[in-house]
Amino acid sequence: MFGYYYNQNLRKLVVAFGSLFSNIEVAHTDPDTSLPTNIRVPVHYSSQEKFIQRLLQPSSISTGTRIELQVPIISFNMNSIVADPGRRLGRFIQNTNVTQGCGPSGSAIGSQIPVNVSFSLFVYTRHTDDMLQIVEQIMPYFVPEHIVTLDMNTVQPDMQIPIIMVSNNLTERYEGDFSSRRLNIASFQFLAKSWIFGEIKPATGISAANTIPIILD
What's the CATH number of domain 37-204, 3.30.2000.40, 3.40.250.10, 3.40.50.1980, 3.30.450.20? Predict the structure, then answer.
């Protein structure tokens, strides 16, 4: 019943989601020239707990200086994959990409499962102004949703996937005294209405010239 196939549907969604935030920048003013300098904010795939431990782990550098060197930074991870019955199509409906004529001339997918994939996004900064700059570059694009187009497979090359911002939260984390270890954290929850497709198989096209005529009285 089961055989190996891999359409990379979820992998492509994860890469696309992370790419949405790959061009975020913050502006810092150079104290010598008073000119702003833009800094690209890196994006990593990691959970919040793992990243906070990495930022606050002991080292020979003072905690405040070390956090200053590593942030601002963004991390994200995929939380869950849940089937969405409300968008489910018939089990035997095929999406085909077939040219006219006989013989294997295209591809077909016999099953497609709608899924809701939840993501968490975390923004870490030392300065409040950096946090506000990043938040303003994220929120306007999800009113109410942002649509990405993915090449899921040869049959579905232009699937439009809506991504919805479900919630957001701003917190400050302190370790030790209030002046030495300060970390601003913004957390966002997103929901992507995506699909998982079954195995792609050859499909046969039949042209009108090869069909038997039907006579109606």
Answer: 3.30.2000.40
